Every structure is written in structure tokens, then in C-alpha cells.
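Q: What would this chain look like folded?
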Amino acid sequence: MALLIPLAALMVLASGVLWPLRWMLVPSLVLGVAGGTWLIVVVPGLLPHGALSRLMVTLLVVPAVAAAVLAANASQGFVLELRGAVRSGVVAHVIEHHGKTTSYECVIRYRGATEAPGRLNCSNSYHVGDAVQVAWDPGGLVEPDFAEAKGTYRFFATLAMVSEIALVLLGEFTVVAGVTLHAARRVAAARRSAASDGAGTAHAQTTVSCNTL
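A: My prediction, written as C-alpha cells:
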């Protein structure tokens, strides 16, 4: 089982890499569900204590989600920097969408005709009149986004790898802790059984001795 943890963690990372790519949503979901289920459900189940198992689930969820999200940002940024086009524009309007959570959409105005996207998902930090740089892939491989500093995707890729390593180490630690705790339980049970058998033998010998007298 310990040998499968790096593979499961790699599946989570690959899920994040594929997520921004159009037409790769299904493979991304399959990899993410398979790797995440193994790491977050199966591995903590090795621990004999429920509270400890729940703690490890929480600790494993954090780097797993971080690795996938950071890998997705790195993947999208890499594609946009490699084959994307950039155009300057101005935020003309910010649309607020209300649902389970509040989201925002920026309407971008450009000077002259362009194929650049007119709307982008944004945050409440954007305001009407803000000058922005919009990056988009003419081939439509990934969704458009606000242009970032050159090489920013490397920063996200580095953080994704750090989260990946943390995920593997936590998974391996969970397996080792589970094996150790189960072994300690077996040793403790064997000692209790031996002590119980010894007490029973001593009681039987005392009874025989009393009958002889």
C-alpha cells in the first residue's frame, strides 16, 4: 500500500494539470477522484483510532487540494504564456452574481476591433476604469485570464511540487503509523492473554493444593 501512495499523489497532480485544458475535464475528474479516494479515504482507514483517522484525513486534504489547484494555475499560465495573445483593455463594468457564493465578472472594453474576450471572471478587487492586460489562447485550449508577469506559472509549479511532496510524506507517515499502532495493539493483546492464562494456571494450582491438604 505504501508503494501506491506516490502513484495516487501523482494522479492528483495530473488531475490539476489537465483541469484547465478543454476536452480533458473527464480524465481530470477520473484521476482526481481515484487518487484522492485512495489517499483521503483508504489510507487514513488504516489507523485504528477514529479521532486520529479524522485528523489525518484533514491533514491529507490540505496538500491534495493545494497540489491540484496550484497545478491547474501553473498549467493554464504555461499555455497562455507559450501560445497566448495579450491585449490591453479597461474594466467597463463589474457584474456581481449571487448564488451559494458570490462571484464577479468583468466586462472589458478595448480600443479597436479584437478577438480578445469581452468578459472574464474576476474578483471584487477589480473596479470600473482599471487598466488590465488580458491573455487568451486563439486556439481555445484554455480559458482566458488576466495576464500575469512572465514566468509566473513557474512559481505555481514550484508550490504544486512542494504540496505534492508533503502529500506523499503525510501518506507514508499515515501508513507507518497505522502499521505501528496495529502491531502495538497485537502485542498488548498477546500480553493480556498471557497474563490471563498465567493467572488462571496459578488459580488452578492453588485449588489442587488445597484439595490435597
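The CA atoms of residues 23 and 141 lie 9 Å apart.
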